[in-house]
TrEMBL record:
Organism: Gordonia lacunae
Composition skew (Basic and acidic residues), residue ranges: 493-507
GO molecular function term, any single one: endonuclease activity
Ranges where the DUF222 domain occurs: 49-375
Full protein name: Endonuclease
Top-level taxon of the source organism: Bacteria
UniProt xrefs under InterPro entries: DUF222, HNH_nuc
Keywords assigned by UniProt, alphabetized: Endonuclease, Hydrolase, Nuclease
One protein family per Pfam: DUF222
Signal sequence coordinates: none
Region annotation Disordered: where it falls in the sequence: 480-509
Length: 544
């Protein structure tokens, strides 16, 4: 066999690498080509051909992903799963969806090297030819996944071919509607959807918060839970009941309300039925929290509303507070809640002294340490880069040195880490090495580095920058205002508008007083007394 090694000892580029390079060259030309020379018909054909090429490239990418998985490249490069590899190395935007698509339309190999046909072969052929796009494929998979497990094999095969045919001629929204009709045809009497099928489909999701702080609740309820929810709404969700906008509205069950008071409240009630349902659920959960039915402690934190807010935001009644569950709460809502709830509230001003330095005296963090960890500027989520697990879902990680290696249970050396990332810390490839930053603007924060195999290029260190968004926005806003108005140069210059007030992360959290002091006792001047406004506010909050 002839030697194909180059004179400099390097290997020649593979045909696949050459094709990708040529593809990028062609894409570069396509992005800048003069479309004005196209006739109307040619322009439509070019646009349609480009969309077809995008679909075919997706199929080619899925085939490459299969080979990557077969070679175990994700684990060899330090990633725990193909999904993590796709997310962080290949920057795939929706790896879970892409994995489902790959499993349904790609050809896989057995451990002996034999090729397995795609799970949905007709759909796979349509994607490979570019007759359907990724959105069509996802809509079809969503429909086919709803076919009951008890359906005969020939019926499922026919349904797959029918849905692939539908996908070639319809929009994704049409696919969903026509798929629902097909599912009804397959099981008109509901005989295939037994208890196990209903159990498989059950789910309840609280989706991510929108920009205004609201979140959408979606779910599929079992008959048992549906019965309980409808019973709750029957007795708590009545006009006039549990109305947060009416101070005289009865709370709790309609059976316990005074009839005359309820009738008067119902006359004033202008809520929609959906809003009444929402307020009933909110009132029930408030009663559950007040009665202590959720227990006394969760991961070392008390089972209450635990909220942190900047004192300046509270004084000016603007901005956002953060709960231990990771939700953003407008300051006016927090102040309104403080009238009838008892939250734990961390304020960045004048604190009491509680010992937070245990050395080797204990391994697990105390409640006070967990509260202080949440109160730190980056303590609202897991410290691992990109992780959004809230404070109620994290452990306290010995970030500077592991406990088994002589680490100390001191607040200086601890960092929040969710159980998944906490278990991933170690000195082996694919595990993480962590340490605490001791100086600079990120002082006190935990740095994470993914360990690669020996001889592989080292991975960079990363911080979880999620908590920095408000500060970085304020920085950019001030920069823009400086560009427009110019920076103030003299004391008599008119001050430009203030930027939103985030917690100033340039001040290390280690040098800020909290509700619980994070500093060891040291000699020095006495702590300045708060202003009258601050003292009054803190006295009020101390009664919560």
């Amino acid at each position: 066999m002839p030697d194909t090694t180059h004179a400099d000892g390097s290997l020649p580029a593979s045909r696949a690498a050459e094709l990708v390079a040529e593809l990028h060259r062609l894409i570069g030309e396509l992005q800048t080509v003069d479309l004005g020379a196209c006739s109307d018909t040619e322009l439509v054909d070019v646009a349609a051909g480009t969309e077809t090429a995008i679909a075919r490239l997706t199929y080619a990418g899925d085939r490459q992903m299969v080979t990557i998985a077969d070679r175990d490249l994700p684990h060899r490069t330090g990633y725990r799963s193909i999904t993590a590899f796709m997310t962080h190395r290949l920057r795939v935007s929706d790896p879970m969806r892409r994995n489902n698509q790959r499993g349904a339309t790609a050809t896989h190999l057995t451990h002996t090297g034999q090729a397995l046909p795609p799970e949905h072969p007709t759909l796979a052929a349509a994607l490979a030819d570019g007759r359907v796009g990724t959105s069509h494929v996802r809509a079809v998979i969503d429909v086919l996944d709803q076919i009951p497990h008890g359906t005969d094999h020939d019926v499922t095969v026919a349904a797959e071919r029918q849905m692939a045919e539908i996908a070639e001629a319809h929009t994704p929204a049409d696919i969903t509607q026509l798929g629902a009709r097909l599912l009804a045809y397959l099981d008109p009497d509901g005989t295939l959807a037994d208890d196990s099928e209903r159990t498989r489909r059950r789910n309840l999701w609280v989706n991510r918060q929108r920009a205004d702080g609201t979140a959408k609740l979606t779910g599929t309820l079992t008959p048992e839970l549906a019965a309980r929810v409808t019973m709750l709404l029957a007795v708590w969700a009545k006009p006039g009941m549990n109305n947060p906008n009416d101070p005289d509205s009865p709370t709790g069950s309609v059976e316990d309300a005074d009839p005359e008071q309820l009738a008067a409240a119902a006359d004033r009630d202008d809520r929609t039925p959906a809003q009444i349902n929402h307020d009933a659920l909110n009132a029930l959960l408030k009663a559950v929290l007040d009665d202590g039915l959720l227990g006394k402690s969760h991961r070392g934190l008390p089972v209450h509303l635990i909220i942190k807010a900047d004192l300046a935001d509270l004084i000016r009644e603007a901005g956002l507070a953060t709960t231990a569950t990771g939700n953003l709460l407008p300051i006016p809502d927090l102040i309104a809640m403080a009238a009838d709830v008892q939250p734990w509230l961390a304020i960045f001003k004048d604190a009491t002294a509680v010992p937070l330095y245990f050395g080797r005296g204990r391994r697990l963090a105390s409640r006070e340490q967990r509260l202080v960890s949440f109160a730190r500027p980056d303590g609202e989520v897991c410290s691992a880069p990109g992780c959004d697990q809230p404070a109620t879902h994290v452990d306290m990680h010995h970030a500077q040195r592991d406990w088994a290696q002589g680490g100390l249970t001191d607040i200086y050396d601890l960092a929040p880490a969710c159980p998944r990332h906490n278990r991933m810390v170690g000195d082996q490839p694919g595990q993480y090495t962590t340490h605490i930053v001791r100086s600079g603007p990120d002082e006190g924060r935990c740095v994470w580095r993914l360990n690669a195999e020996p001889g592989a290029p080292p991975n960079p260190e990363h911080l979880n920058r999620r908590p920095d968004i408000p500060r970085r926005f304020a920085h950019h806003l001030n920069t823009v205002r400086d560009e427009i108005h110019g920076p103030p140069t003299r004391s008599g210059d008119q001050a430009r508008p203030e930027a939103p007030h985030p917690t100033d992360a340039r001040r290390s959290w280690l040098t800020i007083s909290h509700v619980i002091d994070v500093r060891p006792p040291r000699p020095g001047p006495p702590t300045p007394r708060p202003s009258l406004v601050e003292a009054h506010l803190m006295t009020l909050l101390a009664t919560l």
